[in-house]
Each structure stands twice: as structure tokens, then as C-alpha cells.
Amino acid sequence: MSRRVIPGLEAPDPTLEREIRGRLEEVEAALEKAVRADSDLLAETSRYLLDAGGKRFRPMLVLLAGYFGDPSDPRLIPGSVSIELVHQATLYHDDVIDEADTRHGVTSTNVRWDNTVAILTGDYLFARASEISTDLGTDICALLARTIATLCDGQIREVEAAGRLHQTEQDYLEVIRRKTGALIATSCRLGGMLSDAPNDALDTLEGFGEALGLAFQLSDDIMDFTASQATLGKEPGQDLREGVYTLPVLHALEGSSGRDLRELLEPGTPSGLHLERALDIVREPANLAHAKAAVVAEVERAQGLARTLPDGAARTAFVQLAEYLAARCEARKG
């Protein structure tokens, strides 16, 4: 999926897909201006991951949510930019925390430069997102600030849980609700707010976004064990290597091979044959089936909320986007 192609929209509603594509081009141009900096180094590092690619999934959701109000409202473009800048900022910080080597198929910022440069670049993008949001109103600025605080809380929880074998699935779901679900939920609510959608639609849009965000992360968790390196843009099993135990791992620890997996993980991050054995255990059909059921549950929750919104192309798009997340990790076929 490229940044300007919305899965599932091309055939059912080419008009909507064309309109969103055009507005994403406006977002892209505005992003380029937003990351300009007086420092040559900061100007280069701020553009680095934007230039590397990305699907612009969150700006797309802002724009789609705008169809429940006035989709032509010019504030939707800077709103989309602010959301994407927050997302990009988290990537710079995540790469430092994870000691990542690559991002979007290119050398990560912390490796190409160093951790200090990566952290300061992320801080700069947070600041630019906040600056842009102030022009959109105090309610928008407050929403973005709350969301950034929630993202930080989720990241801290993930750091705290790293390498811990005794954590519950609910603990993990709370981490991803904050770290991933919150920004996608805010993307949808923001689109409704900026387009002056009815107040009763805003909570529905936010709830849809949270469910969609959880399905998005859970499907990524599954694909980390099932997809190829070419599809992922990184080596499969990366989360396990970093001590991040996602839903498939947590379920496997409680399954028939849980004792074997625990013995492999207790000494620390496994490598070599021990790593391959750990990956094989997590890939067992029963363990993946549990995670896939969790994806389907969130997809159905998202679709149920979407179907309470006013009928139209945007509502259909939301339902199809949720279904796409179930299909991409093979949680539901056909």
C-alpha cells in the first residue's frame, strides 16, 4: 500500500479515492514546508524519514473523518500535518529506545547520525506539530497535547514491560491502546472536529479510531512472525529480539509449549538456534489463532461503530479499512 492508495477504495468509490489522493498531495506539500529548519543538519534529519516513505495512514483518517462534516474545510490539511508530525516524532524516539538499525528500508536516524540527533529531531517535530495546532484552536491544541502525553505513557509502559515474562494480555493491550490506538483515535476525532461534524459523531469517530488502531497493531504483531522481510521492511521476529512480548508471545507462554518458550526467554534475548526455536513456538497455529481472533474482535468493534455513522462513501471506506486489517494478517479471509 503506497501512501496515496487507499486499500479497498479504488473500485467501490473511485471518486472518494481520487479526492483523498489529491488532498494527501496537499498534505505532503505542507509537510515539506513544516519540517524546514534554520539549521542545515536539522533540516536534513527532519526530512529524512518523511522522504523514506510511509503510508500517511493517520492523515488519511483525518481527511476521511472530515466527510462527516465539511470535507473541504481548509483546516483539515494543517490538522493532518500536525498528526503526521507527531507520528514521525515517535518514530525517531522509538528507534533510539529500540536501538533500531533501519526504518522504512533506510538506515535509522540514530545509526546514520547518533542518538542525540535522533532525539532532538523528534523533539523538534513534536514542537512543530504543537505550533501548527495552536492556529487551529485551543481545543485542538489541548487534544494533541493530551494525545502526546498518552503516547509517552504507553511508551514508558512498554519500556517497563520489556523482557518481563510475567505480564498479562490485558497489560499488553493497555500499552498498545496508549501507544498506537490513541493517535489513530485522535486522527479520527480531529477530522470530525476540524470539519465541524455533529458532536454526537465525535465520540463515535474516536472509538472507531481506537478499535482500528488496536487492530492495526495486533495485525502488525502477527505479521512480525508470519510475513517476509521484504513485506515487513525489517527482519521478522524483531519484537521478540528486543524483548517486546506481543500478544502471540504472551499466549504462547500459557500454551502447551509455554514451558519450553519460557526456558528459551528467561536467560534474556535468545539468539541462533534458541531464537529460531522460540519463533517456531510462537508461530504454532493455536498461538497465532488467538491473536487473529483478537484482531477480528477489534475489527468488528470498529465496523460496528462505523455503521452508526451517517451513510455514505466515507462510512463504507471506514468499514473496508477495518476489514483490510483483518485480511492483511490473514485473520479473516474472503
Question: How is the topology of this model organized?
Answer:
Blueprint: H1 14-34, H2 40-52, H3 57-65, H4 76-98, E1 102-103, E2 106-107, H5 109-112, H6 115-134, H7 138-161, H8 169-194, H9 199-226, H10 229-232, H11 238-241, H12 247-253, H13 258-265, H14 272-282, H15 285-306, H16 313-328
Antiparallel strand pairs: 1-2
| Mean pLDDT level | 91
Name the helicity range. Answer: over 70%
Strand arrangement, major sheet = 1-2
Q: In terms of structural class, how would the helical and strand content be classed?
A: mainly alpha
Q: Flag low-confidence runs.
A: 1-5
So how many helices?
16
Q: Over all CA atoms, what is the radius of gyration?
A: 20 Å
| Run of helices and strands | HHHHEEHHHHHHHHHHHH
N→C terminal distance: 19 Å
Number of strands: 2
Major β-sheet profile: 2 strands, antiparallel
User: What form results from the Cα inertia axes?
Assistant: globular
Strand content: under 5%
Kindly list the characteristics that best describe this protein.
334 residues, mainly alpha, single chain, disordered N terminus, 2 strands
Give structural notes.
The chain has 334 residues and is an all-alpha fold. Helix content is 72%, strand content 1%. The protein contains 16 helices and 2 strands. The protein has helices spanning 14-34, 40-52, 57-65, 76-98, 109-112, 115-134, 138-161, 169-194, 199-226, 229-232, 238-241, 247-253, 258-265, 272-282, 285-306, 313-328; strands spanning 102-103, 106-107. A two-stranded antiparallel ribbon has the order 1-2. Helix 1 (14-34) packs across helix 4 (76-98), helix 4 (76-98) packs antiparallel against helix 8 and helix 9 (199-226) packs antiparallel against helix 15 (285-306). Mean pLDDT is 91; it is low at 1-5.
